[in-house]
Amino acid sequence: MKAWRVHENGEPREVMRLDEVPDPAAGPGQLLLRVRAANVNFPDALLCRGHYQVRPPLPFTPGVEICGEVVAAGEGAGIGIGVRVLAQPPLPGGGFAEYAVADAAAVRPAPEALDDAEAAALHIGYQTGWFGLHRRARLQAGETLLVHAAAGGVGSAAVQLGKAAGATVIGVVGGEDKARTARELGCDLVVDRRSEDIVAAVKEATGGRGADVVYDPVGGDAYTKSAKCVAFEGRILVVGFASGAIPSPALNHALVKNYAILGLHWGLYNTHDPAAVRACHEELTEFAAQGVIKPLVSERAPLDGAADAVQRVADGTTTGRVVVTPGLRKGAAR
């Protein structure tokens, strides 16, 4: 089969190589999946660079989130052939390939309301948003939610989930195209950080109170601005550092302004509370069936375009989700 592999660390476009490798096989309790769609996540770029908290042995295949079809099942797997599932293939055998192996106990049914590309973009981003907003920040109806990178893959999920929770959502973006996307997603107010003062805009929109919850997958200057416009007893949710800059919070500021700084590493819930992960997936599936959420897939790339897709996500030039679809012919990307 064809699979992208990283033989040395560096920028995705430079170090990802499309190789011909043996087909994988499903062991006991495992499933062999034909990859129907593989979502591109920012951690894929960090993995290529060697900057992620997990460093798989070289060479490895990136691609941490897929929608796949079961083509073979190992002993005790308990899932039938032909079933469409969501999976996170364990590294070093990720999803930017024609086939991948996953543990049967960890896969989830793909929502019928979503196509392959949309389903591939559901699990990590929306679970992160749900656990962040509800489990960590305890977002309430009527509160104001500020979402950084609101037109991106992670931010767009938080916008939709915030609206579903009854919050007023302020989206921060960079550029008019992304501002248009954020409005279409349902943001009540969109702030273009390139031409507007984030802090002033948030305070004006909230009558000087500030945002009750801040969803920050960016870090760096975004965090600094958030601390200046978070409300009394507000919560700043630290989700990631897409800017590449990890902030150093001034804890004295948090004390005198009376707000909370909350970290979120969603993957830990798979170990510490797997029942909650299953329940979350059931709720997200119902939301999808109702049309409350729908992953924003801006581009479907063929398998041979995966390295370029990962690089563009790393560079922050994409809107919504970019999904690699191995069955898509070269030149047919949309």
From TrEMBL:
It is an enzyme of class 1 (oxidoreductase). Its EC number is 1.-.-.-. Residues 11-324 form the Enoyl reductase (ER) domain. GO terms for molecular function: oxidoreductase activity. It holds the Pfam family ADH_N. InterPro entries: ADH-like_C (IPR013149), ADH-like_N (IPR013154), ER (IPR020843), GroES-like_sf (IPR011032), NAD(P)-bd_dom_sf (IPR036291), Quin_OxRdtase/zeta-crystal_CS (IPR002364), Zn-ADH-like_protein (IPR051397). The keyword Oxidoreductase applies. PROSITE patterns: QOR_ZETA_CRYSTAL. Keywords: Oxidoreductase. This is NADPH:quinone oxidoreductase family protein. It comes from Streptomyces pathocidini.
